[in-house]
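Example (one chain per record):
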Amino acid sequence: MIWPRAVKDRIKTGGDRELVHSYPYRSACPSTVWTDLVERAGSDILLAGYTNYFFWSQVPAFEALVRRKAESGCRVRFLLGDPDGEVTRQREAVEDVALTVSTRIRITQEHLARLGAVDGLEARFSAPGDAVNHVSLSVFRFDGDALVTPHLARLVGHDSPLLHLRRHGPGGMFDRFAEHAEELWVRGVPMGR
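Predicted structure:
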């Protein structure tokens, strides 16, 4: 009785309060959001996109930022799909675009190789048995924030929707997606850079 229904409808409660923002396309998320999340993260960044290639063009001076974050004690992890894997070949046939999935993965590998050995920086391929689960869902975690992209049918990542989540407690949407990415990471195959 104290709060009118209109106000109650605007106040987020329960699990949906973890939803900070949604975008109909990953490419609609401003680059400043990506940059701010990387900058603010202090302990753990997990970039579990299948290719992760867009970071190098989306986030200004990303290579220097990754180096600085890792050298300051932040754990920075990249989980990629295997560029030579069967799921990668299948996804390339589905997307049918000039900038292939394997090429996008190799772009990320080249950038990581340029970084060289940096304490706190790790890279893995998803395990062959997990690749189909990895290619269909990208989870980018920055401490207690995550950007999540469920990949739609034949669309490339930038054309799929994106959710910005912020952790508010155990068992919410943030934890569910973060646990998915951690599970893929644990079973991942170390990647030589």
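Caption: The first strand starts at residue 19 and ends at 23.
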